[in-house]
Structure formats: structure tokens, C-alpha cells
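Quick question, first post here. What does this chain look like in 3D?
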Amino acid sequence: MATSSNMEVEQKFDAEASTPLPDLKAIDGVGRVGEPATHSLEAIYFDTRHLALASRGITLRRRTGGPDAGWHLKLPHSAGKRTEIQAPLGRADTVPVELMDRIIAYTRGHAVAAVATLTTERTSYSLYGNDGHRMADFVDDSVQAQSVIGEPRQLEWREWEVELAPDETDDGDDTLLSTLTQQLSDAGAKPSERTSKLATALGDSWPASKRTDREEPSGNGPAVIPVLNYLDEQVADLLLQDSHVRLARDDSVHQMRSQIRRIRAVLHGYSALFEQAPVKDLEGELKSLAKTLGRYRDVEVLHERLKNSLDELPGKLVLGQLHNELEERMALRAETAMSAIRNRLNSPRYFTLLDDLEAFIDVPPSTSKGSGPAKETTAKLVNKAGKRLRKRHDEAVSAAVGPQRDKAFHEVRKAAKKLRFAAAAVESIHGKRAVKLGSAAHRVQSILGDHQDSVMARAELLKLGSAPDVGSGAFTYGVLHAMERTTAGAQQQEYLKKGKKARKLRLKNS
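> Answer (accepted):
Ran it through. C-alpha cells below.
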């Protein structure tokens, strides 16, 4: 089933039934007003019994009538802007899979059903600029609504709406919408406080927002504030990546696992600001989830690395049907790993984790240290992560060459990753210094990430080369193994040259 998406940028206005239309031709920049087009629309809105979508500013509806009949899913993008995804009408009682996959992380296994029905008599006018291009649409709506949530009720109202044309929703759209809003306000229109037609229809049943404005972080303010703000952003991104994984977007598993690691690293690095039990519980569940995703991601990385290595070898050194064997082997592993991901993402255990993460942020179990001055407190914790990195470095350079050193460098990489995210969480407090520290730690993480990929590739090549039925392919696997050892050695040397900055930088606490 085909879907499409676009950015929606609009402003609503309140209007009484007797209010005359504003003079649209008098708006600055409007060269021509199109002929009125009328449509009778019916929209059925869907949500969970507890309005999980509405509480996050998400709307899901099935509309009949008008030029854009079909299923519409609207997701918050930024102030005054929403991303709208559309799908064909299909069945009236079945949400299209492509849309359902985008909201499961919010509905969390709860059934989605009709919560309100709105019928609208719409008259729309296209507004064209002086150069003849359509820049916006003005819509005059008379609405009748029936809701089935809370106390069933019926409402009627009239509203106007200005929505920018799709090609106007670029970097300059705020200025254009502001201009149109001001011109219409000057003409007597009143900007509406309504967030949506559904919010009006549900009235007192409309839920409190899940995304609340948080306290602005400051150096002397509570240390917990910048950390919670960062966690809030990362959890929001995690929910977005969830839909990308379900839709099989390229690189989505890697991105989702990265979000999980960010959250876990910050919980670990700033655990002193919170009670220990809930932090440990969340860390444990996040680690388990990352491991499930990691099995697929490891196959992705290993497949790409071995495929490229085989492609780069001269043909005479590739003995046997190794390309085909690699494709078949990795495809089977990837499917098995992806099946495990699907099962995990649809499990009550996963949905409980999402609930617990949001509850942790909304009602943080902070300690007295979390109330301490942010700049001083967070600097100490970030510098503690830096000290851990230096310790792991010393252990790595003193380790015996071979598997022991490989493992030690992997520990350096993990320490660098924790330092990077600890610094990122407090950029709002420490500014450029935190950015520089995070960037330096990221370089270490990247270099040693390539090193770890080489370690994993060597382990796989050793397994393949020693298989009973490997035949002449053992020679090729041996060549690739030797190449990987050389690569790993070079990466260790690169780290020793470029990793000094991350080990030297500190955050100032005053």
C-alpha cells in the first residue's frame, strides 16, 4: 500500500457563524484568490481508550470526501508544524499497517478504535502570489462533532484555517505564515487557541500533554535538569527510530541501538543524581534490548566488511564460491536476528520499558546530589568518566599483544562512548568545552569501533577457514585474516596518535 508524506504548516482562527469572510485580496502579497471549492467531509478519529496518541499531539483519522480522502496520520514536528503521512482509504475498520507501525511505540499494544466523528462543510480558497504561484489555502469550515470518549456529546462550531502550500514549507515558511496571520488578524479574524478539531470535539476529555516544558538549565540550577532534558530528547528519538525499524528503513537498527546506548550511558554516568534501584533496572533492560538489536547490527557490519574485502581481492586469490556462500550465510543470520527484534518490539516487556523510561523522566527519583549546582556537579561526573577513560587506556597499552589487548582496546572504546554522551548531556551548561570533549571522545570511539569490527571479522574468518567443508576457500579466508590483523594494528597506532586530546580535556566546575 503506497503512502506519502508532507509537512503541514497552518494557523487556525475562531469564527462565529455570522462572521463575514475577510477580504482575502487585501492581504499583502496575494495577487489572486482562486474560485471557492466546496466539499463535504467526514473524518473518523482513532486512538486508544486512554488517548495515548492525543496526549503526544498525534492524530490518526480516516477521511472521506474532498481531494485528499484516505487515512491521515499527523505527527508533531515543531511549533506550528506537523508531518502528515497519508495512505489510501482501504477498510474503514482497519488502520493501514504502514501507519500502525509508526504509532505502536506510543499505543504500546493497546487497541486503537474510533473516538470521535467529525463532519465538515468546507469552502476553500487558494491564495496565489503576485508571480502566480499558489502560496497558501484559506479554508472556511462548519463542523459538527460527535465524541464517544468520556461523556458522549455533540458540538457545532465554525473555524477558519490558513495552510501553506507544500512548496512553501521551507526555511522561510514561518515568515510567510506570520505575515498571513497578522494580515488576517488586522482584518478582524481571531487566532484560535484550539490545537485541533479533535481537541475541540473531546473537550474536557482531552488528555494532558506527555511532552511538558522543562525548566531551563543553568549553571547554578539543579544538576538533574540538563540531564533530564537530554534524556527526554533521546527517548523521543528512540520512539521515532522504533517506527523506522518496523518500516525496515536503511540503517534504522543501528540508529535505534545508538539511541539506546545514549540513554543507558547517561543514566550510568549520572547515576549519582538518582536513586540507584530504578537506574539499575532501566540500565539492565536497555542493555538487554541493545543486545537484541546488536545481533542484527553485527551481521550488517560483518557482512558489509567481508563482502568489501572479497571484492577488493584479486580474482585469483578468491578460491571457491565464497561470494554466494557469504550472501546465503549472512541472509539467514540477518533474518533470524530481525525476527528476534520484531518479537522484542512487540512484547509487553518492551512496552513496559518505554513506560518506565517516561515515568523516570516525568517523576525523577533524584537524590540530594541531583539538586546540587549543575555546573560543579556535572563537571565532576564528566571528569570522572574522563578518568575512567585514562585508566582503560593505561590497561590497554600495557596488555599483551593479541586477544587480551584487543579486549582492552574495546574497553577503551566503551569508556570513550560513555564520556562522549556524558559531555553531550551537559552542553547546555558547559558550552563549547563540552562539545570539544564530546567530539574528541567520538573520534576515539570511531577509531576503536573500526578496530572492534576488525576483531569480529577475524573471529568470523577463523571460524570459516577452519570449517570441515571449507575446501580451497581456507586459503582466501587466511589471506583476509592476515589483512585484518594488519588493519587492526594500524588502527591501534592511529588511536595512540589521535586519542590524546580526549584523555587530556576536562570540564571546569566554576
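The longest strand covers residues 113-129.
The two ends are 58 Å apart (CA to CA).
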